Amino acid sequence: MASERELGSQGQGAKAVAGTVPRLYQQVFEIVAGQIVQGVLEEGTRLSESGLAEQFGISRAPARQALCELEREGLLLKSSGRGYRVAKPKDKTS
């Protein structure tokens, strides 16, 4: 998915406020969250700082921040010493 590697390109779903460019971690968050919601990344898929950093061509710090945000939103679960796993999708029937 080469187009997703170009974080500055249009149509990535990253939210810009008053013409400002979203931070790297916010851009990665939006892309990965979208992949989880759409089912591209399935439940149990492992994600790591170094893997995201390499995939998006960024350093580990914004990758780590994006993973923390995804965990905070309930999309990822922290695995002890093993990065993160995609969480079970929430039931939207309620």
* Tally of strands: 3
* Separate helix tally: 4
Spans of at least 5 consecutive residues whose pLDDT stays below 50 are 1-6, 8-13
Can you say what the CATH homologous superfamily is?
Winged helix-like DNA-binding domain superfamily/Winged helix DNA-binding domain
What is the CATH architecture term?
A: Orthogonal Bundle
What percentage of amino acids are in beta strands?
5-15%
InterPro entries: Tscrpt_reg_HTH_GntR, WH-like_DNA-bd_sf, WH_DNA-bd_sf
Protein name: Transcriptional regulator, GntR family
GO molecular function: DNA binding; DNA-binding transcription factor activity
Domain HTH gntR-type: 22-89
Give an overview in words:
This protein is of the alpha+beta class and 94 residues long. It has a single domain (2-86), classed as Orthogonal Bundle (Arc Repressor Mutant, subunit A). The protein has four helices and three strands. The radius of gyration is 13 Å and the shape is globular. Mean pLDDT is 83; it is low at 1-6 and 8-13. Pfam families: GntR. This is Transcriptional regulator, GntR family. One of its GO terms (molecular function) is DNA binding.
